Amino acid sequence: MEATGFSLFDTAIGACGIAWGEHGLVGVQLPEADEARTRARMLRRFPGVAEAAPPPDVRAAADRIAALLRGERDDLGDIALDMSGVPPFERRVYDCVRAIAPGATLTYGEVAARVGEPGAARAVGQALGRNPFAPIVPCHRVLAANGRSGGFSAQGGVATKLRMLQIERARIGAEPGLFGA
């Protein structure tokens, strides 16, 4: 997962970052408190990599992320990600989470069961806390048991997670059947 460039782009929730390499995207950054902090985070994540105009496929991915964050339906599932540096368990978690449609949710426990590790809900949460590809790997769509929000490591924490779910018109709550299909 070696980056060859990164760029910032505007979305409905703030300036996001996107980094690319020879084999696809190597990172996406949800907004920090302001554009300068998002840029600083990208420089820390990808030291020595220059900010540059993105190639057409990366620009298209950024445009699709921006559309998703303004409420358009797109699962972003066909965007190429370079997961060469991602450990196998995390890769399985990310692949599972990428299959959650916009507006739908799963619990950490459901993801653990789907990747063949029932009882590993905490490990799923830790893997999602290290997710380098949000929102392409839509960790915001994974909730704690009984519809509780669970954690969220992006700027703004759980409030950002809930805002993203609201943009997608996801139904969340403690009642059975409130998770999107």
Q: Helical percent range? A: 25-40%
The neighbouring-strand order within the major sheet is 1-2-3
N→C terminal distance = 33 Å
CATH topology of the largest domain: Arc Repressor Mutant, subunit A
Structural class: alpha+beta
Which whole number gives the mean pLDDT?
89
| Low-confidence spans | 174-181
Q: What is the highest CATH level, the class of the largest domain?
A: Mainly Alpha
The total of beta strands comes to: 5
Q: Tell me the Rg in angstroms.
A: 16 Å
Please name the CATH architecture of the largest domain. Answer: Orthogonal Bundle
Number of domains: 2
CATH superfamily of the largest domain: Winged helix-like DNA-binding domain superfamily/Winged helix DNA-binding domain
Shape descriptor? globular
One letter per element, helices H and strands E, the order comes to EEEHHHEHHEH
Keywords:
disordered C terminus; 14% strand; Arc Repressor Mutant, subunit A; 181 residues; 34% helix; three-stranded antiparallel sheet; 5 strands; two-stranded parallel ribbon; alpha+beta; Double Stranded RNA Binding Domain
